[in-house]
Structures are given as structure tokens and as C-alpha cells.
Design goal:
alpha/beta; Rossmann fold; DNA polymerase, domain 1; 2 domains; 6 strands
Length: 255
Amino acid sequence: MPHCKHIIKKMIQEAITQYLQKNKQEVILPKAVLFDMDGVLYDSMRFHARAWHEVATKHHLLSSPDDFYMFEGQTGNSTINALYQRTFQRDATEEEKQTIYRQKSSLFNKYNDGEPMPGAADVLKQARTSGLQTLVVTGSGQHSLLNKLNHTYPGCFTREKMVTAFDVKYGKPHPEPYLMGLQKAGVKANEAFVIENAPMGIKAAVAAGIFTIAVNTGPLPDSVLLDEGANLLYPDMKSLADDWKNIMDICSATK
């Protein structure tokens, strides 16, 4: 076990060193954690993928369930346009986008059981115990989002420090959502962590210059998340919670 701990610490140290070199930073001074929502805070991506695939099939759009793990994080309109371009080589009309997104949302609400992601509460607790702000940066456009988060994770999030589909012009993989998250937290890129499970979300966070921790809670190969630039990768939120102290200790040691 001591040997294993040494390997883990070395892996974290190397990831931090590589991040600092790439982003021309001297230190990481964590003050905030920016959490994606679906697949990170909630075990909900399986229901999103099911709902998207069923509606796409109904509208004769070419797709597989795994496509929606790749598309995750971008706006609904972007996903629908991607499917229309693939199938019909054109963008969807406004009417088509509204119809499909309404049907998808209805199915998702029918299937979704609202279960939190195992280990997410532990990560949140450790982040807040470490004195870090906790924010949500999501491509979701649910109006009831804050009530849902307050019920599952009481006292962890406020509307003033959330970024949703209603706040941004460009969704992930554009860096705007995470740049806005930094702005709302009042921190610089080297003063935050991002926790993401989606390739497009990781791409957005990396483009924003933030140290990005991937949790592979879906069916995609680890390589897909690492290829988008994730600095660290864990198989689930519980593993990240178990390693949180190591990450914080090594960041402190780089000061």
C-alpha cells in the first residue's frame, strides 16, 4: 500500500507539473471547484442518452446511444444540428429543434430517477472543508435546477454561482461556460479545478486554462477523455474523494 500511495502522488505531481508548464503558470492556488452536473453530480447520463436516442430514431436521425456521451455538455440545439448534418447534411429548423428538444426533455423527465452520483457528496464535502467555493457549470437548461441541487446537496450551490444553458452564448466545447464560471467565482484559471466526465466539457475546461479532473462515469474509453487534455483521470467520484487530500497537499507543496 505505501508503494501504491507513492505512485499515486507521483502521478498527481507529474500532472500538476505538466499543467503548469503548458499554461505558463508557477503554482496552482485552489480557491474554487467548477462541477459539471450530469455524470458528475448526478447519475443521469444513461437517461439522457436513452431519451436522445429514442427521439432521434423517431425522427429518422442517425445515432447510437454512445453518441450522446460524446455530445454531452453542448447545448441541445447543437446536438440536434449535429444529428441533422449527419443524416440530412443540413441544420435543423427552429421548429424541428423545439419539437425534438421538447420530446427529449419529456422522455428524460419520465426516465430520470434523480439519483446522485455515488461519491459526489464526499467530493463536495472535502472541497468545502478545504475552503473552496463550489460552482456548477452545466449545459443543462432546466429551470428547476437550483431546487434540485439544493435538495440533493444542501447549501453547496447558489444561483449566482451557477452557469447554465441560459447564461451562455456558446456551449461546451467552447471555453465560455468555464470562463464565466471563473468570473462568477472571482478567481483566475490557476485558482480553480474543473471536474468533468464529458469529452466536450473537458475540451472547454482545458481551453479555459483550468486544471481539469476527469471522472469516467460513462461507457467511453479513458483515452477519449485523456485525448481532450484531462490532467487527471479517475474511474468514479469515490476514487477522486479518496485522493482529494493528496491533490490538495501536492498543490500546497508547489507554492
